[in-house]
Amino acid sequence: MAVALELDGVAKTFTLHLHGGTKLPVLRDVSFVVARGESLVLTGPSGCGKSSVLKMIFGTYRCDAGRILVREADDVFDVAAADPREILRLRARNLGYVSQFLRVIPRLATIDVVAEPLVATGTDRDVARARAAGLLERLNVPERLWSLSPVSFSGGEQQRVNIARALLPERPILLLDEPTAALDETSRSIVADLIKEAKRRGAAVVSVVHDQEVRALIADKIIDVMRFCAVRS
Amino acid sequence: MTPLSYNFAYLDEQTKRMIRRAILKAIAIPGYQVPFASREMPMPYGWGTGGVQITASLLGPDDVLKVIDQGSDDTTNAVSIRKFFAKTAGICTTTLTARATIIQTRHRIPEHPLGEHQILVFQVPIPEPLRFLEARERETRRMHALGDYGVMHVKLYEDIARHGHITTTYDYPVKVAGRYIMAPSPTPKFDNPKMNNCPALQLFGAGREKRIYAIPPYTQVVSLDFEDHPFHPDRHDGVCAWCGADDSFLDEMLTDDRGGRLFVCSDTDHCEQRCNAGHRGLQAPASASSGGGNGR
Amino acid sequence: MDVEAPLLIADRLTKTYGQRRGCHDVSFSLYEGELLAVVGESGSGKTTLLQCLSTQLVPTSGRVLYRMRDGRTCDLAALSEAERRFLFRTDWGYVHQDPALGLRLSVSAGANVGERLMAIGARHYGQIRHTAAHWLERVEIDKQRIDDRPEFYSGGMRQRLQIARNLVTGPRLIFMDEPTSGLDASVQARLLDLIRRLVYGLRLAAIVVTHDLAVARLLSQRMMVMKDGEVIECGLSDQVLDDPQRPYTQLLVSSILTP
């Protein structure tokens, strides 16, 4: 089993300086591995830190302890210890991330929003757009929307654009935070299919999914994040 | 009342030395504007005080002086300056270009080719060619020092963009010895080629702005242009009505108030010499209008 | 991406005005193709820093190192003024907050864009004009307005013209001082898009000074937060904005008004 991602003793505490320095411990001792082609689903009540785990793997959240190891061929990189440029490199090559909120660039056309990560790593723009078109079509985003900015789209349409953007570059590790939350049943199963395809080509997938059906479709293993909860209730 | 007596050519010797030093420096750095301590002269700014100071510092008792204004020896300006030097230096004056050793000029270069024994002194109003685009003296000095002349071509570009051609017709900027960009004074662009590789020394004096600059003999002087809009020394397409010259710079003269006009050589000495040699234009020289030499 | 040498290195850069601190002990490296946002409120020292980096101010101590086109890294203080000016005209761009400072308002847009070319020796009117028209298009100014003077342009158009003027010589590094402040929201959005597209499309390195966190989030991959001349926090933009560590950063982030 080729391990793609390993978390080892990761911890996260927020310090709220605006509230007199109150410390808010969220996670402690988070440890798990995800193999290539394997899909891990994180579960647990809201606020227990599931999204935080994804954000720490992506490098958005800093972690207070532990290591986050990303394996790429023979090299291993620790996201927790990486400097900003290394993290950017890791993101460009290894980490795809679908977040709950689409950071929308106001005037970029949908097709370009989706194609951008590919273009940024050197793919010819027209090739990238063609592939983006294919993926958008699969996700049932109608062609008439491709030249418009996603700003005015519905939540479900935005979510599908977001997914397309993250999945198009076929990165080895995918982090999906509620990828199907705003979607109808048809779209949910299409997304599940896409995740399965990603797994088949060797991607390691870590997701936060509430929907039982989708979970059933994609999860190879499930971890309850409450296990790592730092707050004793 | 005792008559006033002046030092030779009005200026005191120390001042002349100071000006000569500035002239030497200017000759050493062709096209570079050398600041000098311009003196109060008995004529207001704008009437050629810069040129007068240069002439005053150079004159010797054996010099022969010619003074022209827009090519003519007999305008008020030219006459006054000639008389000024006749009075303060007692030197010979002339209207014949060929005879003069020093020629002080406002806004024209004589048609007759100049020789190595002659000095041409220009009266300059604004010595700084970049002034219209950059008002700050500090900046223009920097631009000259660093050869930062992009803005000059911006002006030419603007002309072409707005009018289809470069519209500067006088005081046309030139590059001297491949280094400094210089304002040749408001001489018509027609005269620019005469400055190139000229055997005579050319000196430029701006009294109000307190600058002297120079083009040493046989120096390269190139008018600025674009490859696809090359410089052309335009002249009015016509013939002098008096002497018939078709290659001299022409002045337009109104003869009546019904639109009657004549085109005649701007350089009066040139015209006179041609007439004396037998050349004739379509009309004989009119006795009432300006023409003929005087002031000898 | 292979390991490459940084394009610009600030090494303990400090500028003091007597007792007052402009900026203090600022160090960072900037690589080709990177956009770094320097964020702070007024008086934070961000503009002082920008001016020290772009050699418009002489630092009190510290160095700025720049990797020239021929590969060697130079201390900018060691360059002659002529070399610095040349660098400024060819390798760098500087976009002023007020476009009037970075433009010649009394000459046409085409002349504004073409000036740098003419300054480095371009002498063919037709080609200069053609290049200028091309760049006007790239900053989304109608080519037909090439002969109009920026006196008659709106603020957003002037700013875009300023950008074109800076990009025409293919610089590798652009400094921007609050490029969108003072503009209407929709104009800002459009300009930010353009900046983003151009900077990433041309693989430029850029340092953008702004007080607006949204601008930083949109444009930059990395950011630095400054206060009273000090760098309070730095890191990836999403790190600093989503997981601010220092008290001041948390204050700044929490102060964003969201409509």
Brief summary of the model shown:
Chain A is an alpha/beta fold and 233 residues long. Chain A has a single domain (3-103, 153-228), classed as Rossmann fold (3-Layer(aba) Sandwich), CATH 3.40.50. Chain A has helices at 50-58, 84-93, 110-120, 125-138, 155-167, 185-200, 212-218, and strands spanning 3-16, 22-35, 39-43, 65-72, 75-78, 95-98, 173-177, 204-208, 221-224.
Major pleated sheet of chain B: 7 strands, mixed
Instruction: List the strand order in the largest sheet of chain B.
Output: 1-9-8-5-4-2-3
Encode the helix/strand succession of chain B as letters: HEHEHEEEHHEEHEEEEEH
Rg of chain A is 18 Å
The level of helicity of chain B is: 25-40%
Low-confidence stretches of chain B: 287-296
Portion in helices of chain A: 25-40%
Number of strands of chain B: 12
In the residues of chain A, how many domains can be counted? 1
Instruction: Please state roughly what percent of the residues of chain B sit in beta strands, choosing from under 5%, 5-15%, 15-25%, 25-35%, 35-45% or over 45%.
Output: 15-25%
Could you state the oligomeric state of the chains shown?
A: heterotrimer
How is this structure best described in words?
The complex is a heterotrimer of chains A (233), B (296) and C (259). In chain A, 34% of the residues lie in helices and 27% in strands. Chain A has seven helices and nine strands; from the N terminus they run βββαββαβαααβαβαβ. In chain A, a hairpin with a 5-residue loop joins strand 1 and strand 2 (22-35). In chain A, helix 3 (110-120) crosses helix 4 (125-138) and helix 3 packs parallel to helix 5. Chain B has seven helices and twelve strands. Chain B is globular. The two termini of chain B are 29 Å apart. Chain C is an alpha/beta fold and 259 residues long. The longest helix of chain C has 17 residues, at 185-201.
List keywords for this structure.
heterotrimer, B: 296 residues, alpha/beta, 7-stranded mixed beta sheet, 3-stranded antiparallel beta sheet, 7 helices, C: 259 residues, 6-stranded mixed beta sheet, 4-stranded antiparallel beta sheet, 10 strands, globular
Please write out the topology.
The complex is a heterotrimer of chains A (233), B (296) and C (259).
Chain A: E1 3-16, E2 22-35, E3 39-43, H1 50-58, E4 65-72, E5 75-78, H2 84-93, E6 95-98, H3 110-120, H4 125-138, H5 155-167, E7 173-177, H6 185-200, E8 204-208, H7 212-218, E9 221-224
Parallel strand pairs in A: 3-8, 3-9, 6-7, 7-8
Antiparallel strand pairs in A: 1-2, 1-4, 4-5
Chain B: H1 13-28, E1 34-35, H2 49-58, E2 64-69, H3 76-89, E3 92-93, E4 102-106, E5 119-123, H4 137-146, H5 150-163, E6 174-176, E7 180-182, H6 192-195, E8 201-206, E9 211-215, E10 221-223, E11 250-254, E12 261-265, H7 268-276
Parallel strand pairs in B: 2-3, 2-4, 4-5, 5-8
Antiparallel strand pairs in B: 1-9, 6-7, 6-10, 8-9, 11-12
Chain C: E1 8-17, E2 20-30, E3 35-40, H1 46-53, E4 61-67, E5 73-75, H2 81-90, E6 92-95, H3 99-102, H4 109-119, H5 125-138, H6 155-167, E7 173-177, H7 185-201, E8 205-210, H8 213-219, E9 222-227, E10 230-236, H9 237-242, H10 247-254
Parallel strand pairs in C: 3-8, 3-9, 6-7, 7-8
Antiparallel strand pairs in C: 1-2, 1-4, 4-5, 9-10
Helix pairs in contact in C: 4-5, 4-6, 5-6, 6-7
